[in-house]
Amino acid sequence: MRHVAVVADMKLGQKGDILVTHALGSCLGLMVYDPQAQVGGLLHAMLPMSKINPEKAAANPYMFVDTGVPNLFKEIYKLGGDKKRLVVKAAGCGQPLGKNEIFKIGERNFTVLKKLLWKNNVLLEASDVGGPSGRTVHFDISTGEVQISSNGAVNPL
Known about the structure:
- It contains 3 helices and 10 strands, in the order E-E-E-E-E-H-H-E-H-E-E-E-E.
- The chain is of the alpha+beta class.
- The chain has one domain (2-156): CATH 3.30.1330.200.
- The strands form 2 sheets. A 5-stranded mixed β-sheet has the order 1-3-8-9-10, with no helix packed on it. A 5-stranded mixed β-sheet has the order 2-5-4-6-7.
- A hairpin with a 2-residue loop joins strand 9 (146-150) and strand 10.
- Helix 2 packs across helix 3 (105-119).
- It starts with a strand and ends with a strand.
């Protein structure tokens, strides 16, 4: 079954599912997969830190990297995922408005992700981040394969 994670959303899947997210510009797309349990999840987080709007973060933790990432991992564990087996990949965190973009949301999203992973002893296996182009992610839970589409090209991650 195909599940689409929209902006500020997270989808979970099991064997046979495809998780998709579109229009990753400055947003973080995070894919987490347990190859043995064949479960995974895809997060599409907009902003780095929930402290800018705690009410929105409480209503939708997937809007922010600092609340969405821990929630994604907790949901994977509930499905039988094991931290020792997890494969973690990231996409997005770009600069769709160019290098002069004042708030540097994409760069900050990726920095918050790296800090969270480091503090929790989780390695990032692969990433396709930065740059001006948007990305679409297709994540096959049966195989763990991630395909990134950008500017008409499709590449594995």
